[in-house]
Amino acid sequence: MTAETIIAGDIRINARWLIPIEPEAAVLEHQAVIIQGSRIAAVVPMAEADCQYRTRETVDLPNHVVMPGLINVHGHAAMSLFRGLADDLPLMTWLNDHIWPAEGAFVSEQFIADGTQLAMAEMLRTGTTTFSDMYFFPEIAAQIARDTGMRAQISFPLLDFPTVWGSGPDDYLSKGEALITAWEGDDFIIPAIGPHAPYTVSDDPLKRAVSLSGRTGAPIQIHLHETAFEVQEAIEKHGQRPVARMADLGVLTPNTQCVHMTQIDDSDLDALQASGAHVVHCPESNLKLASGLCPAQQLLDAGVNVAVGTDGAASNNDLDMFGELRTAAMMAKVVADDASAVSAHRALRMATLNGARAIGRAHDLGSLTSGKLADIIAVDLSDPFLQPVYDPASHLVYSNHGRAVSHSWIHGVPQLQEGRLTRIDVADLMLRVQGWQERIQRHKAQ
Ligand SMILES: CSC[C@H]1O[C@@H](n2cnc3c(O)ncnc32)[C@H](O)[C@@H]1O
Ligand SMILES: [Zn+2]
């Protein structure tokens, strides 16, 4: 090999194990990932990299698994400030009697800035590189994510009634369209439309959301079939199951993400299949609110793309996607009555490539493939709780929790180095969080 054939790169990551997600279920050993700018230039055996590449930086990860960053496809980031505020309640009591009053009292631009940063600190620390948010003041959440260099789908809320962010559907939709225009074409921020749920948004605003999505290409994300109560109430009010109503209104398309889907009959499955809409499975929130069980393996078998989300930290109560994967894999086995349902490799794919497909970014994200964006994480398996190692994929899903994540890069930029966040001042953030805790606690005690 002559000097002319040496290729320059920015960062070389030397990985003991590499799970690229594509090809499916591959576990490679002693691989080098070469990053050039914001993209993956190559994934090659280390010996080959020695001959072919010179980079300005090398990161040796001799006890680590390297894989694509996780994609958390559903959450309400700033609700991290409400973590542990109201537990052990079913969805509608939790929302009506606790969360919506608290949001009315506390949510402001500053709340969103601090709460979103708290959520990002937790997500980055536990391996998420892209998150999806559906919450108030989305323009603030988008800016905070962009300033930190985290990739995010930011959905603006759409409801029939006024909230801290809008006076009603007209206001939500005009502010939302401005959000879409402001972030169109951005590398990091994907603006999206977030009709809250079939029981809070009536037909006319839903049709306008569909038209806005068609005109702009913005994805739609909606809570759908979260509980049996939601389905029953909809049959009484509309004479239809919510999925059928959404299909009739044109809401279900390949650019739509249906969050929860714990109640699925044959007609729902047909509608999901026919539409190409995605399902976002949030098993821990569904368990904690006793909402129901999403049949993830049945959906996958039917060809429906199933991604994973944590939901907000007030109903989970963490944003650790590795924990979520463990729960998803365990739950799937019981729901399918089949221990082979949602294997470790399948779970990892759901949290990466399936997530990328759901947000319309599979061409750029979700696997370690040359040409894709360099959104990469490393998990350190050297701790006793992850030893010995026969199968790293098994450990990532069944033994790990997100705190073993040691490194991450987003767009080729380091975000986590040996467990330390590089772009968030955690000490300063903790002071602001403490301030919110005191204010919310005082209000609770009144
Ligand atoms: C339209 S902004 C988001 C809105 O949704 C509320 N919320 C949080 N978690 C859930 C859930 O699991 N189901 C339904 N609604 C949820 C959040 O508190 C905001 O008000
Ligand atoms: Zn939610």
From TrEMBL:
Residues 65-412 form the Amidohydrolase-related domain. Keywords: Hydrolase, Metal-binding, Zinc. Substrate binds at E103, H196, E226, D311. InterPro entries: Amidohydro-rel (IPR006680), Deaminase_MtaD/DadD (IPR023512), Metal-dep_hydrolase_composite (IPR011059), Metal_Hydrolase (IPR032466), MTA/SAH_deaminase (IPR050287). It catalyses: S-methyl-5'-thioadenosine + H2O + H(+) = S-methyl-5'-thioinosine + NH4(+); S-adenosyl-L-homocysteine + H2O + H(+) = S-inosyl-L-homocysteine + NH4(+). It comes from the Bacteria. It is an enzyme of class 3 (hydrolase). Its EC number is 3.5.4.28, 3.5.4.31. Binds 1 zinc ion per subunit. It holds the Pfam family Amidohydro_1. Its cofactor is Zn(2+). NCBIfam families: PRK09045.1 (NF006549). Belongs to the metallo-dependent hydrolases superfamily. MTA/SAH deaminase family. HAMAP family: MTA_SAH_deamin. Catalyzes the deamination of 5-methylthioadenosine and S-adenosyl-L-homocysteine into 5-methylthioinosine and S-inosyl-L-homocysteine, respectively. Is also able to deaminate adenosine. This is 5-methylthioadenosine/S-adenosylhomocysteine deaminase. It comes from Marinobacter salinexigens. The lineage of its organism: Bacteria, Pseudomonadati, Pseudomonadota, Gammaproteobacteria, Pseudomonadales.
